[in-house]
């Protein structure tokens, strides 16, 4: 397995009046090729957890293992880890800084000490993977559209050739078209390149459409972990944590309560549409 999180805790500002336990006894594993969603209300610990996955933060207790090796062990190569576990922050375009897009994407692999030819090949492949056209390679990243900036920033992480890609709210601030572009890229990276993807999102509809497994954080604890469809069956528990279920699931549940014989274990818009049509036809 690429990542094992083993009973980790993390406390902010320990020993002060501002002390806050951000993570409490969190354990789970991430297998090769999974497509996982990570969700939780603001302050639930999900972003803190993401920072632990590639060693940007360290647990106060417990351990994190990558390919079976404790990343806190003496002499562990953190630079190599951050190449293998790529983290795309919220609004990653704010981190674009080079004079042109291609040079910016080269920055990560160059810092790995690779030969120039390999660095440039990786940058080219990464930019093509996110749909940046060749004529945009040598413009200033600040001249790109909002969606292009987001894709260029993702390319900078992809150029490191990660085994695991963690996307922290990658669609934040984007219009519907830009959101679909980014989610389509995440799907392609998972389906075509076999990259393990961890998608952090507040959009239950996006998670329902894209991920296979869902981790739910609440007050620093991992409270649910299972197939996406099964997790969303826990509507009352999720709502008690300030979370929702996908709109399609909520509509089906309400229709069931009104007497329409529909299934309530469906979570995508397409599934809900087909189920409502089926149920209505069965009445005539």
Describe it for me?
- With 284 residues, this protein is α/β, with parallel strands linked by helices.
- Helix content is 39%, strand content 22%.
- The strands form two sheets. A six-stranded mixed beta sheet has the order 6-7-8-3-9-10, with helices on both faces.
- Strand 9 (213-218) and strand 10 form a beta hairpin.
- Helix 3 runs parallel beside helix 5 (146-158), helix 4 crosses helix 5 (146-158) and helix 5 (146-158) packs parallel to helix 6 (176-191).
- The chain starts with a strand and ends with a helix.
- The mean pLDDT is 93.
In a nutshell, what does this entry contain?
This protein is an alpha/beta fold and 284 residues long. Helices cover 39% and strands 22% of the residues.
Give the secondary structure arrangement, pairings included.
Elements: E1 3-12, E2 20-30, E3 35-40, H1 46-53, E4 61-66, E5 69-70, H2 78-84, E6 85-88, H3 101-111, H4 116-129, H5 146-158, E7 164-168, H6 176-191, E8 196-200, H7 204-210, E9 213-218, E10 221-227, H8 228-231, H9 235-240, H10 247-257, H11 269-281
Parallel strand pairs: 3-8, 3-9, 6-7, 7-8
Antiparallel strand pairs: 1-2, 1-4, 4-5, 9-10
Helix pairs in contact: 3-4, 3-5, 4-5, 5-6, 10-11
């Amino acid at each position: 397995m690429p990542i094992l999180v083993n009973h980790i805790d993390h406390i902010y500002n320990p020993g002060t009046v501002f002390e806050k336990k951000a993570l409490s006894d969190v354990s789970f594993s991430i297998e090769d090729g999974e497509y996982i969603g990570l969700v939780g209300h603001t302050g639930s610990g999900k972003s803190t957890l993401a920072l632990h996955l590639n060693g940007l933060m360290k647990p106060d207790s417990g351990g994190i293992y990558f390919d079976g090796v404790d990343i806190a062990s003496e002499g562990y190569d953190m630079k190599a880890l951050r190449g293998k576990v790529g983290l795309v922050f919220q609004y990653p375009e704010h981190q674009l800084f080079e004079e042109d897009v291609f040079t910016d994407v080269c920055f990560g692999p160059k810092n790995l000490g690779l030969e120039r030819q390999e660095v440039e090949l990786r940058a080219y492949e990464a930019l093509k993977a996110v749909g940046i056209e060749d004529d945009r390679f040598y413009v200033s990243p600040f001249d790109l559209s909002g969606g292009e900036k987001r894709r260029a920033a993702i390319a900078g992480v992809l150029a490191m050739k990660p085994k695991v890609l963690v996307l922290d709210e990658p669609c934040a601030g984007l219009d519907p078209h830009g959101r679909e572009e980014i989610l389509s890229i995440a799907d392609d990276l998972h389906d075509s390149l076999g990259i393990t993807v961890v998608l952090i999102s507040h959009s239950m509809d996006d998670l329902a459409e894209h991920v296979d497994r869902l981790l739910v954080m609440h007050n620093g604890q991992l409270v649910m972990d299972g197939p996406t469809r099964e997790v969303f069956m826990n509507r009352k528990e999720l709502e008690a944590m300030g979370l929702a279920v996908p709109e399609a699931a909520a509509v089906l549940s309400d229709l069931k309560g009104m007497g329409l014989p529909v299934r309530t274990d469906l979570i995508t818009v397409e599934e809900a549409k087909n189920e409502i049509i089926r149920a209505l036809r069965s009445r005539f």
